[in-house]
Amino acid sequence: MSDPSSQITFALIDLSGFATLGLRIGYDKVAGGASVLRMANGDAVRQEFWAKNLITLTCTGVAPSGLKALDYDQTFTLTVPDPDDPSATGLPQAASYTVYATLREEHDINGAVSAWTLVCEEA
Questions:
Q1: Which of 78, 97, 110, 121 is the most buried (most CB within 10 A)?
Q2: For the chain, what is the domain count?
């Protein structure tokens, strides 16, 4: 059985092998809050925004072809090590998120792909 802390999958595509190529995972929080909006008749309505996770996967080289073939207008399941829930061994357990994602590629001066970033915001 594999170590849960090494499980990195996106839309059933295993990205764990990219850890040896320098795959970095960034965890951020998108702030929540609340605001008061007005209806057409003048009534006040409180709208709340929940705090969400923003997870970025960044790696050098060309993005896996499976990532390039996806339709990013839908939600996906992302499984990564959960930094907020260490197990008894001190290693983080795997956590799954339903996310909206965007794949970005960086190019070098010659126009070749030099790195890719997968930005995932919790749905």
A1: 78
A2: 1
Residues 6+ apart with CB under 8 A from 20: none
* Domain CATH code at residue 40: 2.40.30
23 DSSP β-pair partners: none
Angle at 75 between CA 74 and CA 77, to 5 degrees: 145
Angle, CA 42 vertex, CA 41 and CA 46 arms, to 5°: 115
DSSP state of 70: S
Taking only the tens place, the pLDDT of each residue in 30-69 is: 887 788 999 999 999 988 878 899 999 999 989 888 999 9
Instruction: Supply the mean pLDDT for the chain.
Output: 87
CA 22 to chain centre: 17
Q: Enumerate residues 6+ apart whose C-beta is below 8 A from 32.
A: 48, 49, 50, 51, 52
Question: What range defines the domain where residue 74 resides?
Answer: 4-122
